[in-house]
Amino acid sequence: IPLSRLDDAVGRVWEMKGKLGLLEPDRQLVREMSPAEKAEAAADSRRICETAITLLRDRKQALPLKAGKDRKLLIVGVVPKSRKGGDGGFSRLEYLQAELEKRGFSVDLQHNILYETDYWQSDLTERYDRIIVVVMRAMHEPYGPLLFWDDEAQSVGGINAMPKDKTIVISLGSPYLVDTYFERVGTCINAYSRDEATLEALVKGLTGEMAFKGVSPVG
Which end of the chain is more exposed for a tag (fewer CB within 10 A), N or C? Predict the structure, then answer.
């Protein structure tokens, strides 16, 4: 390799470091973001989330939800909890609940649907206008494969036994979960994450405040 080629490469690296201020002797390695930077990051986050959320199917036109028609909602979190601590993100669903309540819905929240409580003689579809099933699996939370087992697998069975015109399934994580477990459910959404920007965008999509723009990354 000619020395001139190496000089060129090193020179461009140093030029970029200079532009970023990396060569300044008093440069701070870590600093708090300015209010303007925080506002820009929040705006970018909202834009990305509103563009990403994907409506996989809505066979019976269950969406958008309307407070006059779908007033009473139940959110069922199908989320494994770790015996070593941590709720797998279940508490994030309280934010989703609050955002829907702001829009005039009456919303209850529960963890899983089990044989001993709801499965065999469930009247959930009679007591609620819509049942929003939110499934979450995150890497190492708890440790194990990105699948469902035990109580969560039991919940999947109960949900699939419910009338499909009342059920909406949303994945806040793996885009594979919906088609792996809920192929028969008519209204399904992939939202990919569980941060506040994602949940806000999700509620806008559910209530028709924005159109779903995302395209599924998996076949």
Answer: C
Give all strands of the β-sheet with 130-135 in edge-to-edge order: 54-58, 187-190, 167-171, 130-135, 72-78, 106-111
Mean pLDDT by 10 residues, the chain (219 residues): 94 92 82 93 96 96 93 95 84 96 96 74 83 91 87 91 89 92 94 95 98 91
For the CA atoms of 179, 180, 184, 186, the dihedral, rounded to the nearest 10 degrees, stands at -30
Smallest CA-to-CA distance from 190 within 43, 16, 201 is with 201
Q: Check residue 154 and give left, alpha or beta (phi > 0: left; psi -120 to 50: alpha).
A: alpha
CB half-sphere exposure, 154, CA atoms < 13 A: 13
Rounded to whole angstroms, how far apart are CA atoms 179 and 128? 25
Instruction: Please give the DSSP secondary-structure letter assigned to residue 46.
Output: H
